[in-house]
Amino acid sequence: MKKLLKLTAFLLAGLIGHAAQGDLIYGVDSNGDRLVTIDSATLDFTVVGSISTQPISISGLAFSPTGALFGLDYSTGNLYGINPNDVSISLIGATGFTSVDGLAIDSFGNAFSMSRNTKELLSVNLATGLATAIGSHNASIVAGLEFDNENLLYGVNTLNRELVTISTETGGIINSVSLSDVAQGLAFDSSNNLFSVDNGNPERFLSLDKATGGVTQLSFLPIESISDLAVKRFVAVPEPSSLAFCGLSCLGAIFFRRRPKRL
Questions:
Q1: Which residues make up the CATH 2.120.10.30 domain(s) of the chain?
Q2: pLDDT on residue 97
Q3: What is the pLDDT of residues 112-157, one digit of tens each?
Q4: Nearest CA-CA partner of 142 in 169, 108, 166
Q5: Residue 113 near residue 60 (C-beta atoms within 8 A)
Q6: Which residues of the chain have pLDDT under 50?
Q7: What's the fold here for domain 28-232?
Q8: Where is the signal peptide (predicted)?
Q9: What is the DSSP-derived secondary structure letter of residue 16?
Q10: Which residues pair with 79 in a beta bridge?
Q11: Which of 22, 86, 108, 185 could, after both became Cys, cross-link 144 (CB 3.0–4.6 A)?
């Protein structure tokens, strides 16, 4: 009995502790093509490894709902699959566009990028890499694409220093909010908090208020030129409340288990 109580209490404590942890935000260093991570709660910074010895420059980074990590090369427009554990890469295919900026994947697995040359929103086929132009946003430069938890597409107009929302049907800008500081690259965590970096030297890790455009510095990063961010959010995992309920159910089963009838 005591052993069961201790075991259940240990599991419950672990589940609650896990729920309090932050999300792991992945980033890519466009200068050295290094994959890095930032813990959104502790702000711990880790270099995972170098993506490739090939002359590529990843300008777009995103996780699919299945947990697969993808990257887009700015110059060639090639789409790559990236293993976030050993940082090995595999070529999937060419988008058919060059100077592509940003990569965002919604909860249904639809992928989008931007063509800096044509100023168009692109729909990207994750199986083949081939991209199709949707429409122009008519802004100077829009980068750092990312979906929030309601599948609304955001980007950063880096020249005008604006946070913009983009229509995935027309490619046009729906709304824009002036930012109080420089930002490049976006990442929403599982709680819909918005993070960014400023592409400075040293790089700063930032928190953004998507309603007001307020920018708050969270930390300095020992790296420069992070081109894009990504968070593994849409992969189905048990909710913290469900995990806690499971632990409490175990306790209830122990205390209120059926006892043998006395004769």
A1: 28-232
A2: 96
A3: 999 999 999 999 999 999 999 999 987 778 889 999 999 999 999 9
A4: 166
A5: yes
A6: 1, 3-20, 237-257, 260, 262-263
A7: Neuraminidase (2.120.10)
A8: 1-19
A9: H
A10: 72, 93
A11: 185
